[in-house]
Fold these 3 entries.
Entry 1:
Amino acid sequence: MSQTIGQTKLAYSRVWHHVDVGTDPRPLGRIATRIAVILMGKHKPIWDPSTDCGDYVVAVGCNDLHTTGKKRFKKKYYTHTTRPGSLKEITMDRLMAKWGGAEVLRRAVSGMLPKNRLRSKRLARLKTFEGPSHPYKENIVRISDGRPNISQMDEVKKAFAEVRVSK
């Protein structure tokens, strides 16, 4: 009998999720929280803090990022090179003008991920785009609300049918 019940390659397979930030009514923090959970893999039953079992996330429409209150003009991002007098600050509005809404979303998600050795690998699976087009259309399996449509795919139906026949 196997000691690793449920921890198979199929359980650790990565799924591509699609999030349309421009049409999503939720504010930046709510979207970033959901993306962080998907990147960590906490939505999976096999989740373990020390393993990297998260999925890919493609976020489109980041130029239409929605924030509440006056955060867009008052929130500041700080950078420091550890040299005296090198503290720099930039507001969210100027950051969006300079680097786009994708960088704002990336920084929000980065702050919500655990600060450990897996953080950079998880953040690399977040693909952000300003407009609605992206090169990952063929990889997308789940749409923004998290409902799976993988069960309707012919390959999955065929694989399940083969398993049922073999038993």
Entry 2:
Amino acid sequence: MTPNHLSPSELGTKDYWDTTYTHDLTTHAQTPSHTGTTWFADARASQKTLSHLLSLKPPLSPTTTSFLDLGTGNGEMLFLLRSEGGFTGPMLGIDYSTASVELAERIAVQRGFGASEIRFREWDILGREWEEGEEGVWDVVLDKGTFDAVSLSAETDAIGRKVCEGYEGRVLSMVKKGGRFLVTSCNWTEEELRAWFEGKGEGDAHELGTFEWEGTVGYPSFQFGGQTGQSVSGVCFRRI
């Protein structure tokens, strides 16, 4: 059963993120060491995501594995994959905020990454179709907080659904057969993420297959009122 929807928030609006990344751009221009907000930095989510990817069996190829980062923000996840993960294959970060893409491109230049090493593009994954030759070609698709933001949007799609309901199908269409989708969230538990993404393949995505659970990224847990929980959840799915 699909979990109940979250109440809409300004964090689910494009205006909020345009304002955020425009501020980060201005601050970065004045203080180059400021690279903007990195989602879930306090939980070391980027490092834990990298560690999980490096632990997969059989191992991912360091030279050919392709990565697509959804809602790339300041591009930090892709920089980490290249500098510390040793991955040198195709990498693309997309975001619907023009300011986000500009910030990520500036930081890439600052860190010495060429445009051929890591690409960034303005792209609304729920509002635009992929260009021919780019759909279903990615070995690993990453989402670190983007589904959280989508879940907080009040927008609906062409058939009247909350936009978060069509997210699984769009992501599924991006992942190569046998590829992975790794999602990190502070709004949804592991069980809820599995309910959103696992074994659905509904509607337009039906012919593409489905996602199956492959593993969980470990985060510290806490206990309150006899219940155990986590402030951040990470789940890795495989497209079958």
Entry 3:
Amino acid sequence: MSSDDEALIDSAIFQEPSDYYPPPKPATFESRTLQSGQTLRLRLGHHLWNGAQVVTDYLYDHKESLVRGTSMLELGAGAGLPSIAAAIWGAQNVVVTDYPDQDLVENIKINVDAATDVVPRSSNVVVQGHVWGADAEPLLANLPGDSRGFDTLVLADLLFNHSQHAALVSTMRATLARSPHARALVFFTPYTPWKFDKDMAFFDVAREGGFEVNQVVKRVMDKVMFQDDGGDELLRRTVFGYELSWNDLDI
């Protein structure tokens, strides 16, 4: 037997059968009716997180100052609900990002494409992968002219990733417009309430990075997202929302 024949036999022995791995789970969808009346059917990567839902409502309530005619960047977007809603409500340039995994990015693109009929032609929506703390130039390149920052940033339910707080603040510093009117919206639910202090430590990092922190929302949802999780149920149902602005524009 030749060495080539032996290699073929070895390859066949160690090759998994076609049904070895379980089939991928089918995509899940959830419909969300916006305050303005449009209904979006969102393809979910994981869940439609509470933070994303509440920050979307907040954007609608403050659309004249935070949305209409502005540029927006969303980090860790998941299904992209806040970004798509902002585009519908008149944001001119919207960049929707998540970790640069093909499935995650493709999921956002599917949702953006599905909303084409209700997004005004004047709104430009771009979907990109982005690693927090990495070079922000590919994000800023989507802005028109000599713009060097976004008017509004959206971070919804990202603070659970405690090791990435510094990276998030780094991206915020690199992408938020150096303007007294620019805002970063940070909304989250402490799904693991025994780590609430670690979630809140993000704002200490943000203050050290030159941001002023103001709480603007505290909303208790009707029920917890994950029934089997432990810890304080009230905290697990509560969405906390903060506006961050530049504390010192000379930094």
